[in-house]
Specification:
The chain is of the alpha+beta class. About 60% of the residues lie in helices and about 15% in strands. Strand 9 (about 525-530) and strand 10 (about 535-540) form a beta hairpin. The protein is elongated and about 170 Å long.
Amino acid sequence: MNLTTTGAVATSAGIAIGNTLEAVIGAELVNRFAAGSASFERPQGVIRFAALMVPATAISASVGLFSLWAGGLAESSRMLVVWLTWFLGDLGGALIFTPLIVLWSRKAGRRPVPGGALEGVALAVILGVIAWVVFHGNMPASFAVLPPLVWAALRFGRRGAASAAVATSLIALFGTLQEGGPFAQDSINESLLMLQLFVTVITLTALVLAAGTRERQRVELDLMRSRGELEEQVRKRTASLADAVEKLQKSRSVLNDAQQVAHIGSWEWDILANKVAWSDELYRIYGLEPETVEITYESYIARVHPEDCESVASSIRAALEGNEDFEFEERITRPGGEVRVLQSKGYVIRDESGLPRRMIGTCHDITERKRDELELERRMDELHRSNRELSMLSYAASHDLKEPLRTIVSNVQLIESRLREINEPEIRRSAGFVFEGVRRMNELIDDLLEYSIADRPSAGEVESSQAMADAVDRLKSAIQETDARIDVGPLPRVVVGQARLAGLFQNLLSNSIKYRHDGRVPEIRVSATREGSMWRFDVADNGRGFDPDDAEKVFVIFERLNADHGVPGTGLGLAICRRIVEAQGGRIWAQSEPGRGSVFRFTLPAVSPQPSQESVPSPISA
């Protein structure tokens, strides 16, 4: 097109470059700084769009005019007028037609106006008549076109405003070109300049008004939506509050019932007002009817047992002065003179400055529990005394039995030597029963003596490996007879006497050998593991084992399992082991399954500090 008007290829190319730069730069500016195609949704967006079009159209006018001047087609004296005309023409076209194209190319964002078709026709007729009269007649009042534009902006939104502005601009342009309307001048350029300024102003005014109306409607819609959501939240919150109140009332009822069952009352002390609120159960604990007496700190102290008043007041003062939580026992005196024992707990609530404002707590009536504790303590003292007396009696009886037993043994041995000279099988068999009975009696008395003193703590420290070596040496005959294999890992130094620990190991090893599985060579593994302040010893074997339900039964005195029939023993060995371990503050237990062996575990106090691995004696085996 430029080639047909200017007649020069270079000039046409320069104008084309300017127009291209205008479109590219304008689009980039609008997309980056004015929300792109959404620029016309808000008044500030319209203004930004108009402001950004100024430099874009100025580039087009400048490049195009320079191309004309370089090609000798523009006079230097008219450069400013031509540039201004070119600039305003491009700016007006951008501001008038761009919104129309953008808005009608996008999906409609508002609902159709009720009766909009008829109203739109009326608006078009009125706008056309007024614009025709103003710009084709001699009516100088150009502002007469503003009311229809305002009508279009308010009722038909941004599309309506852009369409009305374009229609008005076209009517005004044709009228001015025919030398009609208020902007007709002697010079056509001056007329077009005035017209361009006018249509630019009315277009921006209509678009800003339409965008502002759209923004107001959006805000109103958001407010209505927010109001609906708020009303719904208020409704839900009200329902939730009513439900919470109902649950609170139920909770208070349940709490009162629970307090009555547990004999626990609650209280709250308003320190500034010196008023104490008691629960119903607390009134009952004090022997009062609920809500019949006003409680203050002084009236509360007056109900405390005289011997406990000072300690109670001291505990409360300490809590107020710094200790947030407190707990103490107190005795109270009921109106009839009955004394009850309470366990009181509570805490202090302070304000921002750290001053105590309230104190909240509970009182538990533990009178019956204290009576039970005193009775239990009395019975435990009696039991301990009875056990001590029984142990002393057992020791004395066993010790005294040893002397006549020695006489019996010596005489039985004499009889046995004489019977060798007599060839009477019946007499010798009867004598054998006597000899075996004497042997078992001697063994039982020895075990009773050991059992009677096993519950006494043993002082001293010992290397477990040395005690284990002593036990293995005592069982050397049984080990050789059964070909038993004993694997002993590293053992520590523990707090117990040498003889006690050797006896403990001897009983456990002997138990594993006696209860070996038929057809198996006895295999026993001894190991130790550190557990806090204690060492845990494991004595595991591959013997016949026993039912796991009998794991506790095997430690009961004189208790022997059915599987023990035919195995010699007094039923005291494992009971002695328990007494030795528990006397040192440890514990002993067993794990087993029939046919799969047993593991006896016990704990003993470790020597402090814990020895290093290097100090643990090396393992032994037998």
